[in-house]
Amino acid sequence: MTQISTTVKNQELVEKRREQIVLAAIKLFSQKGFHKATLKDLAANAKLSYGNIYDYVGGKEDIIYLIHEYVYGLLLDGLEQVTAQIADPIEKLRRMVRFEFSIMDKTADAILILYYYSHILKNEYLYKLLSAEREHLQRFELVLEECIARGLIKPCIVRLNANLIKGMIDAWVLKRWDLRGHVTASDAANEILDMVLNGLTPKNERMESPGRKEKHDLDGKTIFIANGGTIPASAIISRLVAGNARLAVFTKNILTSREYPVSFIDDPKIRFFSSEEYGPLTPEAYESIAAEYGAIDVYVHDLGQGNTEYPPSEQDVFDAGRRFEEQLRAAQDLAQYFLKNASVRQPDRMIYVAPWRWDRYLNPIRFETALAGAIALTRELSRKSGPYGKKVNCVIPGFLKTPRPSPIESKLTPRILEKISLKRLGKIDDLADTVGFLSAEASDYITGEVIHVTGAIHQNYGEIND
């Protein structure tokens, strides 16, 4: 936000205050209208003094341009992130359309303000606004040209079709009076993509576009899995891949076989990142992986161990305590990073998977600490990042069947069943499906929730007699 003149020399402060002013202006202009709202009203809404406003803007007209810079900054930067490392142009187009919908949905009030009041801008600023919109449309044109060159879509008037696609996306805001309550943003994005790739002919008469994939609930999403070497994480990976997500899996080492009976190593949708190569999971390591693999839409962190042994040795208890501590520290550090960058960077969803109930027999104190930490992170991060559209949830797994009969399941199941309302162990897919749901658009209005996949245990975790 540097086009408008300012008397403040600290550029970082200017950007911070202008974003503060922009967010307050969007809310105020939507409620009162641009012409009725005053700078005094705006100062109060932005929690700045009336005189302080003039340090950052010259008048209300300047704020319209700043709103434009804010929205288009989100769009252009985001389009770059969601298409990074994607080679398939059809997949790029899918990601672009879905990302545009997510931003249009979040910034609908700002988009309407720009449509209503852009005409009041000075010629200089109006030219810059239109130039930014041309650059925006060129992103779609380049992808369409790439699709044509590779024979994935028929030759067409690229400039016109880019505008038609963008116009259909814009209708989500401009026609929201007629669409809201009848269709979701996800449905609208899917319909537009289907119309672009297949038209409106009946399915049995369609010419399927080469490279077209079946729709899945996680189609087009890139998901980061932290601590991906546990049995619960393996089940989650299987579910997310089945939903057609791309996965970046961070784990201590990369194994060609796992206890959970699914082979991942050759799956093109999964890329493993080893802590032996990248070091501990830190914000710097996460940034490096995101830069290499592409923007992350969903972050999933398993804070558990995936224990299957009973009873544990003293060394097992010690090692587990250290691993619990490492995972919780990594989750806390990443939470701070996500919060710091909430306004400008993905992921849009964070899911903390608490240790499954078998882990308590490995190290009860560390188990309870990790469990409490997952809940605390969820509640605090959801509260602070919610205004930026982020969804943060926690899943608490109970006593789940291990993929193969394990010592701990065989020895402890009879007395554990007395504590569970459903009188059975859960399936590991119960956990995986819950994480899949929270990763998908169907959970778009769910945040700050702690979901117990436990079959309803009668007593608190710490009160069950071990």
Q: Overview of this structure, please?
A:
The chain is α/β, with parallel strands linked by helices and 466 residues long. The protein has two domains: 59-198, Tetracycline Repressor, domain 2; 222-463, Rossmann fold (3-Layer(aba) Sandwich), CATH 3.40.50.720. The chain contains 17 helices and seven strands. It has helices spanning 11-32, 39-46, 50-53, 60-83, 89-106, 108-117, 123-149, 158-174, 176-179, 185-198, 231-242, 275-278, 283-293, 314-340, 364-385, 407-417, 428-439; strands spanning 222-226, 246-251, 270-274, 298-302, 349-353, 391-397, 450-453. The chain has a seven-stranded parallel β-sheet with strand order 3-2-1-4-5-6-7, sandwiched between helices. Helix 15 (364-385) links the parallel strand 5 and strand 6. The radius of gyration is 25 Å and the shape is globular. The protein starts with 10 loop residues before the first helix and ends in a 13-residue tail after the last strand.
